[in-house]
Each structure stands twice: as structure tokens, then as C-alpha cells.
Write a structure and sequence with these properties.
Helices cover about 60% and strands about 15% of the residues.
Length: about 400
Amino acid sequence: MRLSPVRVQDESRRSVIKDVFKCTKIKAGTHLFAFIKVVNLILFRYLARELAGSLVAVTTVLLMILMSGRLIQQLAAAAAGEVSLEIVFFTLLLRLPSFLEMILPLALFISILLTYGRLYAESEMTVLTATGFSDRKLLGYTLIPAAFLMALVASFTLILSPWGAQKMESLYKKQAQMSEFELLAPGRFQSAAKGTRVTYTEALSDDKTQMHQVFIADGNTLLLAETGTQYVSDETGSRFLELHNGRRYDLTPNSPELQVLDFGLYGVKIAEEPEERRKLRKEAVPTLDLIGSSDPKHQAQLQWRISLILMVPILTLIAFPLSKVNPRQGRFARLFPAIVLFMVYISLLIAMTGMIEKRTLSPVIGLWSLHIVYLLIGAGLLLLPEYLRRRKVKKL
């Protein structure tokens, strides 16, 4: 039997057709199941290749957007003297796993919508369905790359992201200890904290960690001390200046009163820990330390990390039925409502994580309730059209 030539513009489709034509040349003695197995393998390879292409493209675009925004923030912080310019690009690399753990579930969600939406819009899925390729089999083929991506997200969120956060925390801690002392010059009055504090030291150690003969004017308070050293609190992340063997003068505005206090050791808070660093300290806790912890912050962090893993199969179940579009509608017909559904999902996860940290939501209920709701949404989108179709057929 001679096969008529087929014009195919897309290279991947041409490859699939060639492979299927090769399968028709199987000898008559070959078992039918072997033929079906080969055809299914070809179709799986085609669908996986199409899905992987979209996934890489979407992930690259989203990653560039996220990293560009982060780079601008880091460069602004470096320009303000908060961090060293030398560590800006290194911190971006350390944050890469935490970017990917958020991006990959969304990228898979969009990729399924775009890839399968195109196949439905160009009637390729109609042809597959007519040849006996069921939705159940297509869903099974989709869950295979989703399982691989699920394992990848698990490695990021459970291992690599906490490791990167630990490295960043140690870098920022060193920067915090160096930032203000690095700017000091012996024998000169220098302002800090946006001009609200003036510091003077007669001498500074070679490693710039200790001051000698210190004078500090902070508002209506004057401090004199023989030596001063800086340290960062491990518990709060705030920076303190320890003054040794000195005197404190408290001035009262519009009054001749003056309070004098002699001290052997006096601590001055230089700066509070920024909100971003506080979040980083939570992310830096190893996953094994979170398991079994009774601290609400640790429980919330553990559930958040597991939630990023669970999002992958749940979003796959939701995206699969939403990708079914009418050829006249186009591949982007359901993209906007699907994105809205995802944004509500991730927003509720973030809000409920904060509620667990503040003890307003029980960890037992936690984020699991939201995953169950979205799992039911996915199951409803998957099963309801088939149920309605069968019910309509019975009425006929």
C-alpha cells in the first residue's frame, strides 16, 4: 500500500509521522501489542518534547524577570552601602534554587496550557482521540514529566534552598559587622544612620573590628569610652556596639539638667535586622531541624516547603482539563482564568503560612486544607465534563 505524501511545517510533527510510517513496516509475524507499544512510545516522546520545549522557554522568561528585579534591588543596596558590590552576583547564584522552586510549578502549569492548547486548537488532539488515544492515557503521559519536575522541586526546596540561604546569611552577617566600621577613619568625626549618629575614634585596629577612645553623639545622648567593638546578635540579627569603660551623658532639651552614668560595659544598638534578612534566617533552617519542631514558625516553613512539591501534581491536574479548547477559540482562550486560579492558590498559601506563624491557624489544618480544595477542583474539572456528557447521552 502506498502512502500519500503529507505536508508538515513543524519539524517535530514531521519526525513523528516518519516514525509512525516506519512502524507500519513491521513484519506480519510481529505481535500487535509490540506495534501499539512502539506507537505509544513515539507519541509520548512527541508530547514530552513539545512540553519540555515550552517548559524551558517559560522558565527562562520567568527566571530572567525575577533575577532582573532582584539584581536591581541588590545594586541599589550596594549603592547605599548596605552590602558590598563584590557579593551581589554571588548572592544571586545562591538564590537561584529558591527562584526555581517557585518558578517551576508555574512554568509547568503554563506549559501544559500552551502546549496542549495548541494541539487542541490545531485539531491534533482530535486526531489522537479518533484513533483511540484516551484522555486517561494522555494524563498519564503528562504526569510522568510532572513527577520528574516534582523530584526536582523537592531537591530545591528541601536541600538546596536552605543551603543557599545559610551561605547568604553568613555573608550578610560578615557584611553587617564590616559595613559601618569599614567607613570609619581615625581622627575624624563621621555621621552614620542617615546623619542621626556621629562617631569619632582616635585609633582603629588593623582588622577594623575594635575602636579606641570612642566618642558617639546619638540624639541627646553622648557616649565616651576607652574601647568599642561590634557584634551581631545570633537571635535577633541586630547589630550592637559594645563600649568598655566609659561614661554616658543624657541631655534634656531646653533644660540645664544633665544625667551622667559611668559604665564598665555598655551596648548600643546600631541597626535593626532588615525584614528580608529575617525571612532569610527562617529559610536557612535545615529541613531536618524543622521536622518535629513545636515552633509555629518552623511548622509553617516546613509546610510551605512541602506545599511547593505538592503544587506540581495538583497544578497538572488543573491545567490538563483547562487546556482543552475549541479550535475556533485559539490556544490562549483559557490562559487568563487559569492564571487567576493559580494566583489565588499561591496567595492563599502565603497568607495561610503567615497565619500559622502567628498561631491564628492550627498547623493540623495548615496548608493541607487548601491543597485538598484545589485537588477537588482539579478532579471536578477532569471528571465533570465526562459525567455531564454521559448523562446527556442517557437522556437521548
